Amino acid sequence: MLLQNTPIRRKLMTMLLGTSAVVLLLTCAAFLGYELLTFRRESLTQLSTLGQIIATNSTAAVAFDNRTDAAEVLAALQAEPHIVGACLYDKNGNPFAHYPAAAPETAFPRAPGPDGFRFGAGRLAGFTPVVQRRGSERLGTLYLESDMGAMRDRLRLYGLIALLVVAGSFLVAYVLSRVLQEQISRPVLALAEAAKAVSGRRDFAVRARKLGDDELGRLTDTFNDMLRQIEQQNAELERRVRERTAELAAANDELEAFCFSAAHDLRTPLRTITGFADIVLRHHGSTLDPEVRRYLGLIHDGSDQMSKLINDLLDFSRLGRQPLARTNCDLARIAGEVFRELEGERRDRTVDFQLGPLPSAYGDPALLRVVLINLLSNALKYTRPRVEARIEVGATATAAAPVYFVRDNGVGFDMRDAGKLFGVFQRLHHPHEFEGTGVGLATVRRIVERHGGRIWAEAVQGAGATFYFTLPAEGDRVPAEPAE
Amino acid sequence: MTRRSFGRSVRNALAFAVLTIAAVRAPAAEPPAPAALSAEYQLKAAYLFKLPQFVEWPAGAFADAQAPFVIGILGEDPFGVYLDDFVRDEKMDTHPIVVRRFRRGEEARGCHVLYIGRSEGAALEKIFAQLRRQPTLTVGDLDEFARLGGMIHLVVEDGRIHFSINADAAKAAGLDISSKLLRLATIVPPPKR
């Protein structure tokens, strides 16, 4: 289509004006054509009438060979400025008198031609017989020539009028079409504006303004109706999400409360078991059978391990309850301190610790310390089989936010198990190889996610692992804290 | 060429043309007029035929549409058979033209055109009296013809034939002379103011 990419306003204007112009031009052309034809016919009639009059008036002059009178009759043609020439011939066809009198005789046909007037080369000319009514005899012939100037003048005048009419009509059509095209373009543009607002700002409360009750009005109604439905559905969905979230949060709270109280309550009987196993070993150890002593030792170790587990679980549980106290923290300093505190873990070992410059992080320093404790103690733990352990803490700057990482050259893990890594009690290694409760990485993930960050790991079985995490910068959107 | 010199040369050419036309008009195949009719009378004969074309006769001048149109010659006839040949088979409207010759004025009543010959100079007034109120166009070339009561006086001047027309006489006879003819003529007597 010709106007495919032009705005609808211009399209409408072009259509209206184009149609008007074509109609006007065709009308004018028809008008001019008709005028031309009519005028030719009229000119012919007029000239033959004039010829008749002159011929009739000159009969006596021709009959009685009176050139003076003939010249006088012809001179009357002065009144008709478009008659450029006239000539009278006697009955033998010899020129007898002509007009204008000063013109040379060569300006006229040497002898009369057939009667009648004809158009030719910008002029109209012809011959009329000179006959006196009472006699049957032809007395002579009159030649008349018109320069068609009248037709030119008239056509020029008509052309000018047509031009003015076309220009005027076009102006009126322009003004009218400017006003009328609004009838269509305004509602369409209003609709487009509304649609743009909806899709651009996701604002479903916008409504297109209705400007009439035609097809466009109905389209606007339908559009608004669709918006209302979307809005309703959105509200309904949000309400449902809120309900579900509340339900889930309630269930989660209940579960956590149960875990906490269960863990808390388990500690008392456990302390009894550990305490009394200890007392028996310490005060009656010497009297006991070595076999019994060994069993008691196992009971003590087992309940000790269980106690640790319960403490870890309580810590993990508490993480979900404490509010975050965020501030700008120097992760490098925290990492350095944690590494020094883990001195017990690296006794009698060679550990190459690399601490790269770390961008400042925005978060709860106590919790971030827990993250680093867990990640670094894991790194130390799983590099134990290495003669020379290497642990690196650093950050890679990406476009969005820095990605912190803790890398080791330990035993690594199979990437197929990466999904299980951060679950509670999920352990990839046997407790005999590497001790642990299976709560550490779950805790780390919980802290990072509460900060609105992300954590993931990459590893090669037997060749080390890298743990990455991100923390949103200050001012970034952070997921809402779950309702207490 | 100025207008005046053009006019003069036209006039000079005219005298020649008049003679030429008259000569051409003379029927070559017919026997020549006795005593070789002069160019002047040949032209006058033609005028006797042409002049009536510019004159209207009253309704009563013809008995019916086929009634002849009579050209009469009174007295001395200068045309002879030339005139008869000239008008043979010609018609005035629907009326066939005939030529008649008369000796006496009273015989000429009923003519439509009457040429009065030079022999009638002394009897002019009597003839006009006899033709009073008759629709007869009197034509002649005697001196003072029109002033004496004739209607059309043919006057030779500068080698051309001019007319003097007594419009009052024609009007009195019920004849209506075309203004086109009057325009070419000298009106006698001059119109009174």
Describe this structure in words.
- The complex is a heterodimer of chains A (about 475) and B (about 190).
- By secondary structure, chain A is an alpha+beta fold.
- Chain A has helices spanning about 10-55, 60-65, 65-75, 150-200, 215-285, 290-320, 330-340, 365-380, 440-450, and strands at about 85-90, 95-100, 115-120, 125-130, 140-145, 325-330, 350-355, 360-365, 390-395, 400-410, 455-460, 465-470.
- In chain A, helix 1 (about 10-55) packs antiparallel against helix 4 and helix 4 packs parallel to helix 5.
- The longest helix of chain A is centred in the middle third of the chain and has 70 residues, at about 215-285.
- Chain B is α/β, with parallel strands linked by helices.
- Chain B has 6 helices and 10 strands, in the order H-H-E-E-H-E-E-E-H-E-E-E-H-E-H-E.
- Chain B has helices at about 5-25, 40-50, 80-85, 125-130, 165-170, 180-185, and strands spanning about 55, 70-75, 90, 95-100, 115, 135-140, 150-155, 160-165, 175, 185.
- In chain B, helix 1 packs across helix 2 and helix 2 runs parallel beside helix 3.
- Mean pLDDT of chain B is about 80; it is low at about 1-35.
- Classes of the chains: A alpha+beta (about 475), B alpha/beta (about 190).
- Chains A and B meet through helix 2 and helix 3 of A and helix 1, strand 3, strand 8 and helix 6 of B.
